[in-house]
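Pilot study result, target chain (163 residues):
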Amino acid sequence: MMSQLTLPQFLQLMNEDLHNEWTHLQFYLYHASYITGLHAEEYKEFFTNAAKGELEHVQAFLDRLLGLHFALPNSSGKNFPSFTKVEDALGHSVQLEEEVVNNYAKRIAQLDALAGTWPVESAYLKIFYEDQLQDSYEDCEKLRRILADTLKHQYRAAESRLV
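Predicted structure:
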């Protein structure tokens, strides 16, 4: 039988989620400048806007953690690979977003278990995580659509060279 999760333990998990959000921010900001190729300028704008969205996520996690008196929230992200080809960066972006979507769904379930001892905090954090889940899920869908179009374009270009 698994022991009951405490609020301090949950906040540590939340701090790990903040670590992922810092990673996303840094990844998108870095790739805004690092991507090369014909559409590099358009993707610079895309990745810069993605970084702005991640900045909002980082700030929201910091606000929640500090508001719940978590002592030392993460202040940076994890190491990440760098890509010059946009489809590689987009593919990795999908992986980053899928990871947090799965984590946030798990956190919502964990908060249900925490509701008995911390009803107000768990209810508030559940709403917070539902919002984060929705935002990250939609980001993931958008990235998949863009990536699918990029790959279709490459496939068509390769086909035209074969003819």
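One observation from the pilot: The two ends are 63 Å apart (CA to CA). A full batch analysis is planned for the follow-on phase.
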